[in-house]
Each structure stands twice: as C-alpha cells, then as structure tokens.
Amino acid sequence: MDKNTPQKVVYIEDDPEMIDLVTLILSRRGFEVKGAHGGRQGLDIVLQESPCVVLLDLMMPDMDGWDVYHQLKANPLTASIPVIIITAKAQAIDRVLGLHIAKVDDYISKPFRPQELLDSIDKVLRGNAA
Length: 130
Hints:
Layout: E1 8-12, H1 16-27, E2 32-36, H2 39-49, E3 53-56, H3 65-74, E4 83-87, H4 92-101, E5 106-109, H5 114-129
Parallel strand pairs: 1-2, 1-3, 3-4, 4-5
Helix pairs in contact: 2-3
C-alpha cells in the first residue's frame, strides 16, 4: 500500500457522537474513517471501501452487530478484514463470546481511552500483516 494513501477504517455504530469521536482520534493518526449509521449501511460501506479494519458496535436498532460480523466473515470479499468490537456490553461473558467463540480480532469496552483504540488497531494490523 502507498504510504501516502491513508488507511481506511469503517466504524459501524448507531451513535453519531461516537462516530465523530473515533473519527477525530483516528484522523489525527492518519486514518481515513468512514462512519456507518447502523449495520445494513455498514455492510454496504465495507464492500465499497475495502477498509484495513472494521470497528463494530454490537447494539444497533436496525441490525445486531453479531449479525453484521457473521455476514462480513461469510463473504469472501470481506472475510479477511479484521473486526474490532467496540461496545458498552462489557460483561466478561460478552468478551469471552467475542474473543474466543466468535473469534473477533479484538474487543474494546465503552468508555475507552483513545490510546486503547489506537493500540488495538495497531495490534490487529500487525497481526494481519504477519
């Protein structure tokens, strides 16, 4: 990938303020963020943009985040894109389900520190490049 081309991130989230916050954090690090308001729009944007990583909320009104995740992984065009879950569902069981059962690439609980998000993206991108 050309070093001058920003890496694309798609954030699928039903809260516009969260999308704005994450866009602010990541754009300062040179990422291009595309926000999707809900799961259906998110799936369309991921197909259009082919991002380096997808950030995904679990609780959305139009389509559950797990449904979005399974559709991404079932599609050969999007199956290899790393997915980081960002959610307020912070119980240990949700984390176990996400990381060990569903095999998401990482799991961040809201609220999170900006550095936590950046570290997570760095980790999954390094892991994907290996």
